[in-house]
Amino acid sequence: MNEASASGRTDAPVAGSGSVFLIVAPSGAGKTSLVKAMLQRRPQMELSVSFTTRAPRPGEQPGVDYHFVTREEFLRRRDNGEFLEWAQVHDNFYATSRDWIARRVAAGRDIVLEIDWQGATQVQRLMPAVVGIFIAPPSVDELRARLLHRAQDTPAVIERRVAAAQSELSQAHRFQYVIINQDFDVALGQLLSIVDGAALRFAQQQARHPALFRDLLGDPPG
Asked: Which superfamily is assigned to 2-206 in CATH?
């Protein structure tokens, strides 16, 4: 069972020169590899580390892969309004830190949220200026072939993932950008172009060069 919710607070992160990117994709579309390559090429970007109540898996590091917390601590943080969005997936909770994102954006850092479409729509409602990017496979058949090539799941699990992917693909219209990941290098170039273009939006440029726009536009009316 999946449940998701936005925080009851409606204040968005503090304005700054940084941008927030929501990257959504069905399993097998290549999102993780694209994000990893993007972060290597754009050092001003940071991946948001989610909070979770599930136990660490082998090789996972606290503060790197997730912030691992108890159920009690998670609920306390949630009730205090510390999360931008949160979700319950089966018996575990997951959430995005509101205050961490606010601080990093205000400091001029670009933040990446790898998130499902339901969580993404919650963030979009609270932060209309976020940049939404959907990564899609070239076809459902190609997605199935990639999952089979991974050899990590049984055929039954793969078919469930394919069915879930078809449902997720129907939500692509919710995002400003859709990248078809047929050729990795092409898809990466498109992703980097979106990131670079977002930095040139007026709000980001005004935050970086306040004196320039104050001189050109004058002080805002008091």
From this structure: P-loop containing nucleotide triphosphate hydrolases (3.40.50.300)
